[in-house]
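Running this now, will post back.
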Amino acid sequence: MNKEKVVKAIIKQGFLPLYFHPDENTSVEILGVLYEMGVRVVEYTNRGKQALKNLRILAKESYTQFPDLILGLGTVMDTKAGAKAIQNGADFLVSPGYTKELASFSDDENILWIPGCMSPTELIQAQNDGLSLIKIFPASSLGTSFLKAAREVFPDLLFIPTGGVDIDQVESWFSAGASAIGMGSSLISKASMDNRDFEEIKFKITSLVNQIAVIRTS
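Update: finished.
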């Protein structure tokens, strides 16, 4: 899939929901809930031995049920995991850190890779390697002041803070220069998945979408 198309879709959406559940049926149901709520870009995280199998199932379901969905795999640590992700249907890759190997791999495969960066050195490397969308990780530790400073030094990069971002912090992250935000358990909690509390997930997504809309129009 075209890398620029994925980046534009994430920025337009304003947030990137990420989740993992070991049960394939629950994983599909959550994806259906997200799609129903208008979400068109999703990160499924590589957090368990079932992740790649579930990713393959999600990609297959997307092809038939959610044709315009863009599905990525997160927590990609190395090129081996990246290759398996692509083989199992990933449209993009996300990592918690930055490696030259993954930068070269994603370029060779012509697939969007969103690396996690937490230092100016990593941001320089990412920019020099031609990457555009950077995950600020862990966002809760680095804080909005880091993003604000980074945005001034790297005006051509797009930032998506991820890791401990709560709904009540959304405005401050966008004010600091975020182009979108990554949200996991604060949006799709383990309890809501295990208890099949899909209404809670829908409520949080609606609240988040409305909040981002207000921020962007103000």
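Residues 97 and 116 are 4 Å apart (CA to CA). More later if anyone needs it.
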